[in-house]
Amino acid sequence: MSMLSQPHISNAHFKTRIFLLTLTPAYTDKHAHINHKTISQQRKTMKVFLLGALWGCALFTQFICATEAPLQNTSLQALSIQTYSRDSVSLNGEWKIIVDPYENGYYNYRYEPFDQQATPSQNAYFTDSKQKSPGDLLEYDFDKSASLQVPGDWNTQTDKLYYYEGTVWYRKTFDAPPTKNGERTFLYFGAVNYRADVYLNGKKLGVHVGGFTPFHYEITGKLKDKNNSLVVKVDNKRHADAVPTLNTDWWNYGGITREVKLITVPQTFIRDYKIELTSLADKTVSGRVLLDGAKGGEKISLKLPELNIQQTLTANSSGAAHFSFIATNAQLWSPENPKLYSLQINAGKDKFTDTVGLRSISTQGKQLLLNGKPIFLRGVSVHEEYSAKGGGRVKNAAEAKQLLDWAKGFNANFVRLAHYPHNEDMVRLADQMGLLVWSEIPVYWTINWSNEATYQNAEAQLTAMIERDKNRAAVIIWSLANETPVSDARNKFLTRLATKARSLDNSRLLSAAMEKHYRTDNANVAVVQDPLAEHLDLVSFNQYIGWYDGAPEKIDRITWEINYNKPVFISEFGGDARAGNHGDIDTIFTEEFQENLYIKTLKMLDGIDGFVGTSPWILTDFRSPRRHLPGIQDEFNRKGVYSNTGEKKKAFFVLKNYYDNKAEQNATNN
Ligand code: GCU
After folding, report:
1. Ligand 1 atom closest to 637 (CA)
2. Can you tell me the mean pLDDT for 376-381?
């Protein structure tokens, strides 16, 4: 089990453990000759020895377990921080890099980590050392090294790194932002794939694991006025114990893939808040504000000017203050009317603003209700990839907007952001554009279910996802997993995650992309039956009848057995087609084949009792290391209804026509 399966470790932890170990007592064999008195004495010494040895072992095993078992995020860094609408100093742009497949900048030739040394050698790249004299032996120099853009994956910025999986060192120098007395500074990363070891001016700030969630460090008092050196060791190597694990069907883009910024706040500041519509009947809105650095008793003003809401709250000793009010005139957020209200929070010297929508999402039997009315999810699955201009990971709001506009192009009102939390721009744009969101953590295929550190990693990603987006009205579903094989260990793992998710946010629905099988006595009856479904609000599954499972004709003869009194959602279906590749409907990889598959599948889905929507796989073609058919796939999964450059395939028109009808029906029924 590697370190990589542990989400967040601050440097302090390691040192204490090592200190504890050195206390164990020692014993040698030179006292061998015998007499009675000595025998009882020897027995006493033996007892003391045994007890000492036992204590030593206990301590030793505790150390081993400590390094093995996941360390809880104990520091404040474990708490989320709302930053999207805060003033900040961006550290985006050009960063110097060193590509280090042998991790020569991290380990000495004895493969001992430099950052575990009391005084790390200058050969440690995180020291960002400079040659001090002509004879000074130093075999790296960031100033003279190549560079990459941040945010951005390294794979599509230079052909040399297209397939690269390993370590790349990133270095950024910057001057400290001006701060007034007592102000605090935080360093914030939107995401780094996969493991980030972060150093500031040669000192380790910590390690973050998980490629799709934000993390931050308080760096108050750690900055120099000028020329601070921020070094990030980024390692995107895949591991069996990691989340995701070794095998996925998307490109393992490495790098500092999302924004990096500095935030300066007063000593006591507004760290977080949560707001939700808690009663649809009388439009009660409730929530809480969390101050950081509070002693208790601090006054907090909360305003929603457009709703004439103004409240004064008082923080308790841990800085929290709860609120509740009736928003009689509030327009509820919906895809047709994505109404957002300005929220203003003031506390002491700090002020924080954001935009929020108010809506309720619930289920009733097999119905899915938005603001109390039945809704059909006209969806599509989306990867966080925009390769139309040769890029990879979405790197800014404009690219995110393009993807969401493409979804709107066939009248979608829902996007399944697969298979990991997407960047915050995507979710914020969905909030503004009126697109409902399914957000998922990369518990994908065959995770190491019985590994506690893997579980802690998954739970940390779940927590970070929920904490970042808990105030987005657009987000209605948290998804725990995708296509995971049923087993006791898996069921236990995912049930724990479900409990955790509900403890963090009980205002949204839980789901997961499950799988189907067939009745043993009738191969034309497809069944969805999974112990996990008991813990979920929506029974969602992926099905590829007519693609991985038989020919398209098979679709016509399949009936479904889904014995849950819950709404049913088809989270994936589809087939590959190269845009512009035409032929008859039986010729695979043609647009006509894909079109026919869509026509047949949508007809079949309409026959499923409790069917409330679908998110076909997938919006656009995307890079995959598992797709090698020359001239057709060329390392792209071609199941998009658009090509990766935005060309509409014939299936696009099938889907648009189908969704236009659904939208009309929904409008008529409501
Ligand atoms: C799977 C999986 C996707 C994958 C797709 C495919 O169901 O969830 O990640 O890309 O099928 O095979 O195209």
Report:
1. 13
2. 98
Q: How far apart are CA 44 and CA 587, in angstroms?
A: 85
Read off the tokens for 28: 């040698």
Closest CA to 4 of 182, 237, 165: 237
As a residue count, the chain comes to 670
Q: Which ligand 1 atom lies nearest to the CA of residue 574?
A: 13
Residue 188: in which H helix or E strand, if any? strand 184-189
Among protein residues, the one whose CA lies closest to atom 2 of ligand 1: 249
Residue 668: predicted pLDDT: 87
**Ligand 1 neighbour 249 (Cβ under 6 A):** yes
Half-sphere exposure of 98 (CA within 13 A, CB side): 22
Among 245, 248, 249, name the best residue to mutate to test ligand 1's pocket (greatest count of ligand atoms within 8 A of Cβ): 249
Ligand 1 contacts CB of residue 572 (under 6 A): yes
Tokens 């139309």 found at: 388
Q: What is the pLDDT of residue 80?
A: 82
Token match 């409008």: residue?
A: 667
pLDDT in tens, 25-61: 443 444 444 444 455 666 666 666 565 555 555 544 4
The answer to whether residues 287 and 273 touch, using CB atoms and an 8 Å cutoff, is yes
- Mean pLDDT in residue range 486-515: 98
**Tokens linked to 308:** 């004439």
What would the pLDDT profile of 313-362 be if each residue is shown by its tens digit?
A: 999 999 999 999 999 999 999 999 999 999 999 999 999 999 999 999 99
Tokens of 409: 């192009």
- What is the CA(521)–ligand 1 centre distance, in A? 28
Output the pTM of the full model: 0.89
Confidence check: pLDDT of 127 > 60 = yes
For the Cβ of 637 lying below 6 angstroms from any atom of ligand 1, the answer is: yes
Element (H, E) at 431: helix 424-433
Using a 6 Å cutoff on CB, does residue 444 contact ligand 1?
A: no
Query: What pLDDT is stored for residue 4 in this prediction?
Result: 38
Residue of 447, 637, 638, 644 to test ligand 1 pocket, by largest number of atoms within 8 Å of CB: 637
pLDDT tens for 410-421 read 999 999 999 999
Backbone CA torsion sign across 405, 388, 650, 475: negative
Mean pLDDT across the chain = 92
The closest of 503, 493, 501 to 475, measured between CA atoms, is: 501
Rounded Cα gap, residues 445 and 486, in angstroms: 10
CA of 48 to the centre of ligand 1 (A): 61
Identify residue 343 by its one-letter amino acid code: L
Tell me, in angstroms, the distance from the centre of ligand 1 to residue 526's CA.
19
Mean pLDDT within 575-599: 98
Sheet strands side by side (includes 284-292): 269-279, 284-292, 320-326
| Residue written as token pair 């890099």 | 97
What is the per-residue burial (b if ≥16 Cβ within 10 Å, else e) of 191-202?
bbbbbbbbbbbb
Q: Is 617 in the pocket of ligand 1 (CB under 6 A)?
A: yes
Please work out whether the CB of residue 542 comes within 6 Å of at least one atom of ligand 1.
Answer: yes
Vertex 74, ends 180 and 172: CA angle to 5°?
A: 50
**To test the ligand 1 pocket, which listed residue (419, 571, 572, 637) has its Cβ within 8 A of the most ligand atoms?**
572
Has residue 6 got a pLDDT over 80? no
Class of residue 316 by CB neighbours under 10 A (exposed 0-12, middle 13-18, buried 19+):
middle
Q: Taking a C-beta distance cutoff of 8 angstroms, is the pair 336, 255 a contact?
A: no
